[in-house]
## 1
Amino acid sequence: MTQLFDRNRALLDGALQAMKTRAFWTPFPEVPSGRFYGETAREDGETAFSDLLGKSFELNGHPCEYHVGKEQSPWGLDLALTYPSASAETLISASQSAFQVWSKNSIHARMGVLLEALVRLNKMSFLIGHATVHATGQGFAMAFQAGGPHAQDRGLEAVAAAYAELTATADRAIWEKPQGRREPIVLEKEWTIVPRGIALTIGCNTFPCWNAYPGLFASLATGNTVIVKPHPMAILPLAITVGVLRQVLEEEGLPADSVLLAADEPEAQATQELVQAPETKLIDYTGSSIFGNWVRSHSGDALVFAEETGVNSVVITGTDDFRGMCANLAFSLALYSGQMCTSPQNIYVPEGGVKTNEGAKSFDEVFAGIAGAIDQLLADPKQASGICGTIVNPVTIDRLKNACSAGRILRKSGQTGVGRSATPLIVAVGEDDSLHKDECFGPVVFAIATKSAEEAIDHAANLAMKKGAITAALYATDNGLIDTAAKAFCLAGANLSVNLTGNIYVNQSAAFSDFHVTGANPAGNASLTDTAFVAQRFRRVMVRWPKGKVTRPASALS
Amino acid sequence: MTQLFDRNRALLDGALQAMKTRAFWTPFPEVPSGRFYGETAREDGETAFSDLLGKSFELNGHPCEYHVGKEQSPWGLDLALTYPSASAETLISASQSAFQVWSKNSIHARMGVLLEALVRLNKMSFLIGHATVHATGQGFAMAFQAGGPHAQDRGLEAVAAAYAELTATADRAIWEKPQGRREPIVLEKEWTIVPRGIALTIGCNTFPCWNAYPGLFASLATGNTVIVKPHPMAILPLAITVGVLRQVLEEEGLPADSVLLAADEPEAQATQELVQAPETKLIDYTGSSIFGNWVRSHSGDALVFAEETGVNSVVITGTDDFRGMCANLAFSLALYSGQMCTSPQNIYVPEGGVKTNEGAKSFDEVFAGIAGAIDQLLADPKQASGICGTIVNPVTIDRLKNACSAGRILRKSGQTGVGRSATPLIVAVGEDDSLHKDECFGPVVFAIATKSAEEAIDHAANLAMKKGAITAALYATDNGLIDTAAKAFCLAGANLSVNLTGNIYVNQSAAFSDFHVTGANPAGNASLTDTAFVAQRFRRVMVRWPKGKVTRPASALS
C-alpha cells in the first residue's frame, strides 16, 4: 500500500524543500509542448476531449440516481455532456461509508494515492486544458497552465503541507518521569490522527481546478472524504479529476467514494443542501462574498476556508521603463479579460503625472501608454482571443456597459472576434465616485487621479484593507515611496509586486513560493498553502498506559 | 535586543525537541522545594505574598482610571487587594498603541522577552503558589504546580510552537524561473509576519495561570498585544504575570502596554465589552459552554479558541490491581474536589460486576472499594484539606446537594474541616436518568451500571462525543476491550488513559507531551499546544520585485 508513496517520494521531498526555501520549483512543466508531455500528447489530448463530448461521463461505481449536465462553452460549443449525480443525502451517506476506510489509512498510503493521482493528472494536462478552455472561456495556453500544471502544483503543495503537519510530532512515545529516589513513572503514549469528517469543495467557474485542488487535496491528505461540488458550468475539469482519484483509489483497494462529484445544473443547484448538512465538517469555497456570507452563516460548526471578493490596485508613481511598465500592465489587464481574482482593477496615478525614463508623463499620457500597449498586444485577432479568452458570465457584459458611463473613457472596450468577448475598458473616475470601491469583476479598469503619490498608496491600501485585495502592484523609482507602499500593503494584507516588467505579472501566484491570499483582509480567510490551511483539518487523540502493563491497543482508527 | 533570546535559547531548543518526540521534559521543577528554588524560596514567597495584601497592586505605567478588586479567598482570607483598571475603550486604545511597536519587533526579540518572563515567573513560583491558593481554593502543593511550573511549561510550549511556525518558511527568497533559452526571471521576495491585532485572554477561576498562559504567550509570541481579563475572584496570579511581562518589556525599551490587565469586580464585569470590541481579533476563553456560546456569537470576526464544558468518564471492566485502581481513582476524584476540567465525573461498571485480582467484585463492591480508598486518602484532616482544597464557587454546593437525591448514595460527601469544602459524593444513577449526562462541576461522581463492558464503553464514548470530554479512563484486562475503548474514545475525541495506578492520574496533562483537549468534541475547539493553536494568530504578507531593480524595501512592519 505504500508502494505508491515510495514511487512518488521525490515529488513530495521536492515540494517540502521548496515550501521551506520558497525558491522556484515545480515538477509539472507549464509549457504545453510535446517536449515535456510526449510527441503525441497534444493530439491525444484533443482526441480524448472530443471522445468525451455528447456522452454520459463515466465515473465507475459513482452513486447515480440521475444524470445532469447543461454545460455550455463560452466559446459556443455545446458540450452535451451529462454526469452521474445523486441527492445530497445519498452522496453524504456514500461519503460517510468511504470515511470509515479512508480515514483509517496510514498517512503514507494516503499520500501515495494523492501523489500518484497528481502525476496521472499531469499526464492528462492537454485533455484537462481543453476541458478548462470550454469550462472557463480561457484561451488554450492559459487553460492548459491553470487547469493543468499550475493546479497540480497547488494540489501537491497542499499534500506536502499536510504531510509536514501530520508528521510534525511523534505518533508514539515513551514518557518517563523521574520520581526522585523512587522508580520513574513510565507511560507509553500513542496518537491517532482523527480527520474531521466530510469535506465539501465548492468549485468556481473561472478556475475550476486551480481553486479547487488546494482544499480537495488538503482535505483528502488529512484523512477526510471529499464531495466536490463544481460550478454547474465548469464540471468537466473536476469530473476528470474526481475520475482519476477514484481510479487510483480503486486500484489500491480503497473506497472510490472517498471522492464524490456533486454535479448539478444552473436551475437546481445542490450547494446549499450540502453546506447545511451537519455531516459537512469542512468547506472550501471560492466565489463572491455574498454567497460566502451565506455559506458562513449556514454551515453550522463546519470550518470554512474562503477566497472571496476583492479590489486589486496598481499604483503608478514613476518608472525607469515606461514601455516595459505599459506592456506588463497591458498583459495583466487583458489576460482572461480581468476575470482573475488576482487581476488589477484600479490604477492610481497622481493628478500631476509621474516621472519616467521617457520624461514626465501626465495622468492621461500614462493611460494612453497603457491603452496603446493593450491595443498593440491585441492587434492580432488570434493572439487577442488567446489572451483575453471569452467572458464566462453574461452578467459581466452588463457590468462593463454600466461602467462605461462611470466617467471619462480612456480606452474603449472592444471585441476579439471570437466568442462572447470584451477587451479592457479603461475609465477615469474620481476618488469620490463609488463604482471602483467595490469589485467590478471583468475587463473594467478604473483610472483614479490622486493628489500625490502618497495619497495613491494610501487610497489603494485602505481599499484593500476594507474591501479585500489579493494582489497589489507598484511602479516607483523613489525608495521612500517603495518603503511606504511596502508598509501600507503589508498592513492591508495584500501581496505587493514592485516594478514588474517582462514576462512576470502581478496576476501570477506561484505555488511553493507565493502564498496565494494572505487571509489578512476580506478577500479571503485562508492562505494557499500555509500551515493553518491544513492543521485545522484533523485532530490528534491520545491513548496512554503504564509501560508493559497493557498490550499495545490496536491502532485506534484501524 | 536579542540578548534575552540568546540567554534563553536552550530553554527554547529543549521545548522544540520535546514537542517533537513528546517524551518527558520540563525545565521548571514541579516540586516546591528549596533544593530547586533556593533555600529561602519558601519563606520569601510567603513574605512576598503577605506584603501584597491590603494594598493597591502596582503595575507601573498601566492605564488607571480607577481601582477595582473584591477577591475573597475560598479559604476565608479577605485579600483586600485592588488593581489599577480602566474602561475597555482606554485599554483597547493603549493596546493599539503598543501594537505599533510590539508587532514590528523581530521574532527573536519577542521570543527573548517571553522566555525571560517565563524564567522570572518560575523563580516566583512560591509567591504565585500562594496567590493561586487564595484565588482557586486549591491546596498549596497543587496551587504551586498548577499556578507555577506547570503553567510555565504550558506558556513555554506555546512560545515554542509559535517559534516553530513563525520560522517554518524562509522570510526571504531569490526566485529564479527558467525561461528556456532566454534569461531566467529572477525575483526577490520578502515576507512579513503580520499579527492579527489585539488578543483577549479570558481567565477562569479555577486555573487562572494554567489555562491563561497558552493563549497569552501564543498571542504575544506571534506579535499580537494582549489584554488579560482575569476572573474577578482570581486576579492576583494573572496580575503578577502581567507585572513580570511588563517589567521585562520595559527593561527592553518595549511598550509595557503590550500586555494589559482588565481587572474587574463580580458585579461589573468587563468581559462582554472587550469581546464585542471590533478591535479584538483573537479570544482565548476557558469556561462554561453557555458563556462560550455567547462569546462566539458576539465576537464578530475574532477567532475564538475555547475550552468548555464536558463530561469525563471512567469505565471499569476489570483490573489485576484492584487496590491500586481504587487508590488511583480515589485521588483523581478527590483532587481539588472534582473542580478540574480533567476530573472524572461518571464511572461506568457492568451491572454483573467485574473480575479482579481479588476475585469477582459486584457493582457495589467496586464502588465500596473506591469509596474506601477515598476515606483512607482523606482520613487525615490536614491531608484531606490539602488534596480537596475548597469549593471555589458556592453554587457547587447547591449542585452537590441536588445530586444527593439523584439516586442511591454510595459515598456521602463530607467536609475536610477547613474552608468551604466537600469531599466526593458517589451516587448511583440509572443510564436513563439525566443528571449525569451533563457536566455537574464539582465533587459529584455518578456510578452507572451497564448491561456489559461493551455498553459501558459505548455509553461513555457517546456522551463524550455529544457533550464533550477532555479525559477518559479505562480499567481492563481484556485486550479486546482495550482495543474497543481505544477506538471509541478516539472517535469521540477524548484522550484515554488505560490502567493507571500509582502516582500518575487521568486528571494530569503534561505539557510538551500530552495535547490538552483534542478539539474534536464539544469540550473545546483548540488543543494545547498544536500548530493550529498558533498558526492562525498571524499572517504572512509578501513584497516581491525583480532582482537588482529595486533597493530592498525597509522591512514592511519596521
## 2
Amino acid sequence: MSRPSLEPFLSARAVAVVGASTDPSKVGGSVLANLVAGGFPGRVVPVNARHAIVQGLRAVPSLLDVPEPLDLAVVAVPAPDVLPTLQQCVARAIAGAVVISAGFREAGPEGKAREAELRRWLRGQPLRVVGPNCLGWMRPAARLNLTFAPGMPRPGTLGFLSHSGALCTAILDWSRDHPVGFSLFASLGNQADVSETDVIAALAEDSETRVILGYLEGVADGRAFFEALGAAAARKPCVLLKAGRSAEGARAVSSHTGALAGSDRAFDAAVRQAGAVRVDTLEELFDVARVLVPGRAPAGRRVLVITNGGGLGILATDAARDAGLEVTPSSEEIRAGLRAVLPRHAATGNPVDLIGDATPARYRAALEALAGDPAALVVMLAPQAATDAAGIARAVLSATRDRTGPVLAVLAGGARVRPGVVALEDAGIPCYPFPERAVRALGHATRLADRRGRRAPPAPAPPVDPAALAPALASARAAGTLGLLDGAPLLAAYGIATVPALLAKTPEAAAEAARALGRVALKIVSPDISHKTDVGGVVLDVAGPAAARDAAAEMLTRVAAARPQARLTGVLVQAMARPGAHELLLGTVRDAQFGPLVVVGFGGIYVEVLKDTATRLAPVSIAEAREMLGELRMAPALRGARGRPPVDLDALADAMHRFSRLAAETPGLVELEINPLLAYPTGVAALDVRGRLDHEEES
Amino acid sequence: MSRPSLEPFLSARAVAVVGASTDPSKVGGSVLANLVAGGFPGRVVPVNARHAIVQGLRAVPSLLDVPEPLDLAVVAVPAPDVLPTLQQCVARAIAGAVVISAGFREAGPEGKAREAELRRWLRGQPLRVVGPNCLGWMRPAARLNLTFAPGMPRPGTLGFLSHSGALCTAILDWSRDHPVGFSLFASLGNQADVSETDVIAALAEDSETRVILGYLEGVADGRAFFEALGAAAARKPCVLLKAGRSAEGARAVSSHTGALAGSDRAFDAAVRQAGAVRVDTLEELFDVARVLVPGRAPAGRRVLVITNGGGLGILATDAARDAGLEVTPSSEEIRAGLRAVLPRHAATGNPVDLIGDATPARYRAALEALAGDPAALVVMLAPQAATDAAGIARAVLSATRDRTGPVLAVLAGGARVRPGVVALEDAGIPCYPFPERAVRALGHATRLADRRGRRAPPAPAPPVDPAALAPALASARAAGTLGLLDGAPLLAAYGIATVPALLAKTPEAAAEAARALGRVALKIVSPDISHKTDVGGVVLDVAGPAAARDAAAEMLTRVAAARPQARLTGVLVQAMARPGAHELLLGTVRDAQFGPLVVVGFGGIYVEVLKDTATRLAPVSIAEAREMLGELRMAPALRGARGRPPVDLDALADAMHRFSRLAAETPGLVELEINPLLAYPTGVAALDVRGRLDHEEES
C-alpha cells in the first residue's frame, strides 16, 4: 500500500503552526519565531486558542478556522492534543504535518499507548506525518525552518536525515563554522509515519540534493530500506552512519551462521549491496560528504599525494594503504615532465615531494605536469615562515580546474594556512587539517564510486528441479531440524552437491552402505551427542563392507558405553571426501529486519573464533558471490597460496548463488548451514548440513 | 660507550648563533631573530665573519673569538662549513650544537659523503649535536627558540620530538589555536648524533616534562630504543606515532614467522613491551596527550558516559566498545542516587541520559551522585536553544574536582558550546567536538595505564641443559638449515618437547623406527620437495614394523615416479601425535633493528592467510607469553570454546618463554619456527620445526 508523497514537505507555500505561543522561548513559540526569522516567503498561520495576535501575526483559534488552503502544519501541542490536531489536518485536506510534541513512545507506558493509537489511526489516512518527538524539518533554500532550533544552516546540496534530535542541534551549531550546506535537514523522531526509508526515497528524487547523508539508529523495514537505498544510490551518493554497532538484536540462534550474522552485519551488508557506504564516526560522515559534493567521482583506487614535507607524505601513504587506496607513481613520461619543473632533490614518485620551501609557482608547475594523470589528488602543505598559503591555494585551484577526479587539500597548521583554507573551500575544494582524515574520506568516496559502478543486475534464478523440490521441502519441514540426510535433497534440488551418505541403523546396513559408497567414514547419529569425536563416534577411511560392519558395531558399543543415556539413531555412512579441500562455511539465517542473509567464510571448528566471513542479503548474484569471497581474509588461500592450487571459484560462486536462491525462496527457513563446504580445485561439495524450518509454512 | 648528557640543550644560558645573518628572512638570520624575539634571558652571541653588528647585537667573526664560556651553538652555515664550525665548538668546550644546515644525507651522494664524514668525526667527541638538516630545538619555558620557525608554542608539560621538520612547522602553527603546551619541541633532522632514543632518555629525566610524545619514522638502534623507552615509560606516559607502517624493511625470509613479523610489527611489539602506546594518526597523538596531561590515570577499563542526547550516547558507546572500554552501569546504590535527582524519563544506566533540556544544576547533581563511581568520565553536551554551555562547564568542573580518574568532555557543536569549551580547557579538562575522538583517546590512555601497570620484571632464565646445548648447537650450526631432526635436540636443551621422530634411509630402518615409536606417520624427506602430500609423500597412522616397512617402500617408489629428478634422503618416521590438539605456530626471526622477535599464532596451512599472530621482542616472561595468547583472535578457542576443553595455557606459556630464551641466547640464529606446535589440554609438543643459522658464530 503506497503512501502519499513527501512533496508538500519540500515545497510548502502555506504553513500553519499549531500551538504557536506568544512566548518565543516556549517550543511552539520558537517554531513560529524561527519560521518567521528564517524569512519564509510563503504564508504563515499561527493557531492559538487564546490569542488573536501571536508574535505580531493574526492567529486563528483552530485549524478548522483557516479559510485558505494549507500545505503543512507544524504541531507543537501537548501530547493528548496531537491526534485531534492531526484529524483536523485531514479535515482541512492538509497533506503533511511535522509533529514536534513529545510524550509518545519515549515517555513510559502511557506514551507508548498514545503512539500506538496514533499509528493505528494514521494507517491509510491521506496525511503524512514527520515525528512525533522530533526537532523538526528544515529546507534552507526555501527558507523553511520548521524546528525549534534557531538559525538555519546554509543552503546546499546535502540532504541530511537523523534519528536523533540532539545530534541535529549539535550538527546545526557545528555546521555554521564549516563549509557545509544542506538541501534538507530532517529530524525524524519516533517515525510514527515518515521513516528514514521514505526520506531517502524522497531525496533520491529531489533535484536540490546531490548527496544523501543519514544518521540512523535502526531501520523500520529492512527490505524496504534496502530497496529505497538501492534506488537512491543508483542516482546519487549515499553515506550513512549507523549507531548501535555493538548491540545485537536478540535472536535465538543455534548455528554458527546465526551467531556471525548479527543485525548490524545485516545492515552493513544491505548498505554495501545497495551501493551506498557506511562510515563509523560523525566526523567521517561530513568528511566524506565534502569529497562528494563537488561531484568529482574517483575513477579508480589510485591517489597521488603532493606535499612539501616528507612526514606528511608518509602519514598520507600509510593512511591510503589502510583505506585500500593505491599510492603508485605516475607514468615515466609524466615524471619526466615533473623533473623538468622541480628542483633537483624534489621527489617525483608518489608522494611527490616539492620540498619545504615550495612556492605557489612550484605547486602550479607540478600540478600542471600531473594534468595527464587521472588519479585522485591529495595536495598537502606544511607552512614555513615564508609560505604564501593563499597563493598556493590559488595555484592549486587554477592548475586543477579541469580535473575530473577528486581533489582534496590538507593544509596542516593554523593561522598561517587559514587564508589558503578559505580560498580553497570557497571554491569547493575540501580542506582537512590532517592527512589521515583526508585520505580516509577519499577512501570512503572511492569505495562508494566502486560500489555504485558495479551494482549487479538482479541475479537470474538458477534452474531448480521442481519435481525434486516439493518432496524435499515437505520432508524437511516435517523434520523441523535438518541434518545432512534431510538437507541433501533440498540442496540437490538447487543443484548443490553433498558428499553421498546413508543412514545405517544396524552394522549390516552399514556394510550395505559401504558396498554402495566405497571407502567411507562412519559417524554416530544421536540427538543427544554433539561432540562425536569425544565419545569415539567418528571413524575415518573404512574400506569394504566387512570392515564397515565391524567398525559400526564397535562404534555403537563404544558410544553406548561412553554415554549410556544417549539415544542412538544409528551410524551415518558417508563416502570419504576427496582430500585437498579448503573447508568453508556457507550459511543462511533469517534476520528479523532484513530477511534471509547469506554468510560465507572460513569453515571447520574455528569458524566462530576467526570470524572470517562475508555477509549479504539473499539472493546474491554470481558476481556478488565472488565479491564476498574476495573480502575474506582467507581469499589468498582460495586463489592458491604457497604452492597449493586455487579452488574452483566458478563452482564456489555458483554454489553460493544457488544456495542464496534457496535461502530467499524457501518459506519458513530459519537457518541452514553447510559446514564444512569442501572447496576443491575442481568442484565443491557439502560435507555436513544443519538447519531449522518453522513448522507452519509462511505465506 | 656512553655519550655526554643533553643537559646543556635543556638549560642553556649562553648561546652562539653561527651564520647569523643580518637579514632575518634568511635561515641564519631568522634563528637569531627568533631567539631574541622569544625573550631568551641568557646571552646571545651572533657569529658573522663580515659584520660587527648583526640585528643590533655585537657579533664576532668566529666562535674562537668569543671570550666568555658558551653552552650551545646553533649552526646555520653552508654545509661544507659545518664540520669546521663543530671543531671550533670542541675547541671552545661548547657542549652542544644544533645544526640547522641542510646539504647532508638528504642531498644526493655528495651530501651522503659529507654526513658520513661528520658522523665519523663526531664519534667520541665531547660534543652533542642535534641535526643536521633540522628545524631546530625549542624550550618554551626557558624562552629558548633555536629554530628558524618564528613564534614559540605555549610552555607546558608535553615533551615532543619529531623526525620531520615539516610536521614540526605544521604542529607549531596548529598548536597556537589549541590547548597544548610544550616542555620541549625538538626536530631531530638526520640524527648524526642525537637520536630519538637520546631525547626520550633526556625527557624521562626532565622534571618539566609530564608526557613524552614522538613522531618517528624509524629508530636508530632498536634495542637501545627499547631500553630507553622502557625506562621512560616507567616514569611517565609515552605516546608515539610512527610513520611508514606499510613499508616493510627488505629482509630475506624463508619462514612464515619472517613474513609475519615485519619491522613495523617489531616496532609495535617494542612499544607495547616497553609500556608505551602507539597511535595511528597525528590527530590522535594530541587527542591522547590532552587526556594524559592532567595526570588523572584510568584505574580500569570502565567508562561512564553522561549525555543530554541519546544519539551522542550511542555513538560514544560504539566507540568505547571498539576501543576496548567497558560501558557498564554504576552500582544500584549510585543509580538510586541518580534517580533521586534526575527527571523521570532520564536514563540512569550507562550512558546516563540527562535529556535534552539538561541545565547546569542537573549536570552538577548527576555528577555529584556519580562521585562514588571510579570509572573514567566522558561528559557530553549537545546544545539546545536555551543551553548554558558555560554554566554546564562550571558545573562539570566543580562536581568533578575531586575525581582521580580521567574526565573528558565532548561539547558537540560550534558557537553555542564555545564558552563551555573555553571554561573547561582553561581548567585542564580536555574537550573534543565529537564523541568518537574523545573515546578513542581515552581508550589509548587506558591501554597505556594498563601497560604501565603490569610491566613484567625481566624473565628468569629457564633451566637449560648445557651438556645437551653445546653439541645440539654445534650440529645445528653445521647443518645451517634446520629441520625437525636437527632442531629437536636444540629445543630439548631448553625443555621443549617434540613429537619423537627418526630418519629411516631404508624400508628396513623404517620398520626399526616403528618398533621403537609405536603407531607412526611416514613423511618423505627430500631437499627438492616441499609439498609432500601432492606427491604421495605422507602416510598417516601406520601400525607395526611390517606395515611401516611396506609403506616406506611404497612411498619411496611412488615419490620417485612422481618426481624422478628429486633427491630422496629417506623417510621420516614419526610417532603419531595424539589427536585433539590446536595447531599453533611458534617462531622467531632476527630483526635487523630489534634483534630476535617471538611470534605466536594460528598455525597450520592458514598461518599467513589469517595472520592471527602476536609478536614480542625476545625474551618474554611467562606473563608476557600469556598476554600474547590473549591477543590472538583464536584466544577463545584456546580457552575452550563450543564444548572443547581448554588447552594447557601454563604449559604453552612456559614453552613460549623457553623458546624466547632460546631465540635470545642462540648466537647466529636467523629464524626458527615450530609449525605446528600442538597444544593439548595437557602439555604441548612440536610436530615440525624449521630454521636457519648463520654459518659463522656471532660474538
